[in-house]
Amino acid sequence: MAETKRMTAEQVVGYLLEGEGLDFLRESLTWVCQQLMEAEVSELIGAERGVRSEERLAHRNGYRSRPWQTRAGEIELAIPKIRRGSYFPSFLEPRRRSEQALVSVVQEAYVAGVSTRKVDQVVESLGLRVSKSEVSRICAGLDEQVDAFRNRPLEGRYPYLWLDAKVEKVRDGGRVVRKALVLAYGVHESGYREVIALDVGEAETEAFWRSFLRSLVERGLSGVQLVISDAHAGLKKAIGQVLGCPWQRCTVHCLREALGHARREQQPMLAALIRPIFNADSGAAARELFGEALERLRKPLPKIAALLEEAEEDLLAFYGSPADHWTKLRSTNPLERFNREVGRRTDVVGIFPNDRALIRLAASVVIEQNDEWLVGRRYLSAHSLETVLDQEEKADNDREEARELTTA
Asked: Any idea what DSSP says for residue 174?
């Protein structure tokens, strides 16, 4: 049982004036805290220490020791115990809340893209000390919600899916390597958009994309009518193998690539020929404009004409969807704008210590944005999606009938 060390005010003043002991501040703080606890317990049980009273609600039951870290150093508190109920010092409650607030601040700072070194400086400015390893440990507390988000089941149908990757630097095996941070962004059948997956891969290989898409299917991804992404041969093959749906090549990236193959003085003419193709009133009109552009480009720019001719079906795939959706389906711009926001946070870190740290930060940003999308306006109206969903249902029925005929 701990024993209280009691000093009168006169003893404390005399102790300080005489200069006895180098730890007078810590012992003075101990005395003040002890008097405060005695007063609080007396009020709680309705009687002073050693005083008989009919208003007494409980009796004291000794003390328990508790170390307390302060700016004056560690002090040992003797917290009074009572036989009925419990008592905890009021001046320790704010300390408990402040610790929770500190954890929250550190996590928010990390999600905002502040490095652990800078977070440490912020914490020091609050008069506290937290090491870089402690900051990393606190940030690891985000892992539980990140894992829950990344592994959540995908319910309902997602008619449209965007895929994109961003290169980040990560330490691996004692060296810094470039890895792909992959994001999958979809529109749910309800019309709301959401990020449905993210992962880190060694490179954008066909094997990686195939594994990534299969993980989405295992979580419940279904009803995909169109996938939009940049041109990547491995990704295109993986989409055909796993999802078996049409692929839309990003028209913005395609135009940018075409302009890169032309001389500066040829670029305005080239852009004037290509842009109207993606803004036509119908798929038929777009194909007519496409043919005219190829005829005009074959002689002056044969390489560009060949590239466009080979990519025609993939560039015009979005015309198979309702006209209200065209402007949002012909490029990866919606996902790239979001990628820039992720990049704004990751650029502060520069080099991540491991894959997990990169996923933790990126997923935390994603979760924040996802919550805003789910409570905001629909990305596509439910009415405009009905046609797409009906087409998918009809296609499912046709496939089912074909299977029945085959088995018969």
From this structure: T
